[in-house]
Amino acid sequence: MATQRLFFAISLPDAMQQQLVRWRADTFPAEAGQPVAAASLHLTLAFLGEVAPETSQRLQTLASRIDQPGFDLELDDAGHWPRPGVVWLGCQRAPRGLLQLASLLRAQAARHGCHQSPQPFHPHITLLRQATQPVALPPRGFHWRFHVPAFSLFASEYSRGRTRYRTLASWPLRS
Ligand code: 2AM
User: Is 124 a catalytic residue?
Assistant: First the structure.
């Protein structure tokens, strides 16, 4: 079987997706960048790159053994990375549970040969892509909170000119 482009991530509840999409439309002009589709909004925990089936299977087995409590995410920060052309939403203070989960998944990925960026983990949800020109960011003061009861493994698939994210498996966090 061929390799797949994989990443572990947190998906957003449907209501949160809808709220963010409305806020984004009110906050950023159309020319600011390419909006990420509501159903594709996610927070990446660990990017794995192109992965062989055996490695994917091993990482899924390890993921299934993770025993961590769920946590609340508070989205109250926004930023612009002009080089990759990304406008993002994040947290001023990332919850400990999020950092622990990401660090465990990233360590397991690295041990299985999936290169991990040496840059520190900066949890974010990409709202706009191709945002290479200066963008006016919203003033602080906005915030959304939602509970994270699970995490998932996604495959990033490119066909007919667009990228789709397919959920391969999900694992619950302790309630
Ligand atoms: P991004 O949203 O900041 O682009 C699928 O591509 C997910 O993995 C995206 O959330 C992307 O982050 C993230 N990712 C992290 N490192 C990546 C890399 N080196 N190449 C592509 N995507 C990466």
Answer: yes
